Amino acid sequence: MDANQYSFPPAEAHHDGPLFRNALQNLEEAAKVINCDPNVLERLKKPRRTIAISIPVRMDDYTVKVFQGFRVQYSPTLGPYKGGIRYHEKVDLPEVVGLAALMTFKNSVLGLPLGGAKGGVAVDPTKLSRTEKQNLTRRFASELGPFVGPAKDIPAPDVGTDPQTMAWFMDTYSQEQGGFAQPGVVTGKPIEIGGTLGRNHATGLGVVFVAEKAFEKKGIRFSGSKIVVQGFGNVGSFAAKFSHERGARVIAVSDVSGGIHNGDGLDIPALMEYVKTNKVVKGFPGSQPISNSDLLELECDGLFPCALEGQIDVHNAEKIRAKVVAEGANGPTSNAATKILHKRGIFIAPDIIANGGGVIVSYFEWVQDIMSFFWDEEEVNLKLATIITKAFDLAYRLHTEKNVDMRAAAMALAVQRLEKAMLLRGLYPR
Ligand code: NAD
């Protein structure tokens, strides 16, 4: 089947959303830093292909509901498209375009041989039964069949999707290809069907590798330092755990229930056990409650926002008392707040590097699937450290050479790599 028959030219009016606007603003600034070729810049402002799909799903009560799904393939300049699939009721095309652009820059700054994409379905997955979620995923995978594949586009889990979702996606794709399992079509799979060791904790571990480098630059010893973590989900809990293991004092953490604080440091392994039973951090023995906004303003060496976007903005940027902010979440600091923090001498390790551990280990999963040869966890962690610290070092060099904040430096590095590839390939690659 010819995938192109399903694509349609992107209607720009449908792309305009806050996330994409922000990404374009960062792109323009980065282009100035490296004096980017204007034709390359023009090309980078647009997604290559947007795919909109109606997904009919037989519900448990035998009615059929039709959900709206998207896949945006932003740039294949550096390799096959790569980016997660999100199930959330607020998913719309502008959001997916913005996230696909971010993936393009993230994969580029990290030096991965991958392009950028993102997908999503406008659905509240908590309201679906397991069967309904499976039906939805299988139909979405089937509709996306002509566009995805180990050498074309490799989805992964994101908000509202998980390893089981990826298992269904991979199974549907493999069945439709008519042969044996094709694990390389998605990453974030369960280990038993071609997933990789080390993926679960990869983003949190990456945040800590990057924070260690940032501390080094600021002359702070990681062991004995004071860390504050907002969000205690996948990213935040592992960032806290690996900080704790390295001798840092994690003095406060929070989740949707609120925050907890202990100036001497929280017992993170015990807290992880507590959360397994109680679901939230609230009420952890030996801690005092603290609000999420007060938590962000605590005096500390490292603040790791690992929950939501837009947590540090012009309203609280003047009150942040951390020396280093390492962004575990996507977009936790607004562009205006970035400028304020930079001026105040607070070092920002930007999201496209700091939370890159997830996509780096996804890349390892894809490589292992292609080779059908799997690595042990130590090897995964070591290779993760090599790639993420290299990206940090290169961005840091640009940050000092050009005297721009680390976010601008990271973006400039991403754009520079894309620019070089585009010019070598002949300016108008897809
Ligand atoms: P998650 O759902 O596992 O955890 C999110 C955490 O944030 C939960 O503890 C939740 O209670 C908390 N939270 C929600 N609302 C909050 C609020 N108002 N105040 C404080 N805490 C709140 O999600 P995750 O996978 O840990 O992802 C967190 C962030 O990191 C997201 O921005 C995500 O896009 C980004 N990210 C995740 C990965 C990954 O591999 N999981 C990779 C890159 C980026």
Instruction: Give me the CATH fold name of the largest domain.
Output: Rossmann fold
Which bin fits the share of residues in helices?
Answer: 40-55%
Query: Mind telling me the C-alpha Rg?
Result: 21 Å
Cofactors and ligands present?
nicotinamide-adenine-dinucleotide
Number of strands: 12
Q: What is the averaged pLDDT score?
A: 95
The largest pleated sheet is described as: 7 strands, mixed
Strand order of the largest sheet: 9-8-7-6-10-11-12
* Parts with pLDDT < 50 across at least 5 consecutive residues: 4-10
Number of domains: 2
Write the CATH homologous superfamily of the largest domain.
Leucine Dehydrogenase, chain A, domain 1
Shape: globular
- Along the chain, the helix and strand elements come as HHEEEHEHEHHEHEEHEHEEHEHHHH
The count of helical stretches stands at 14
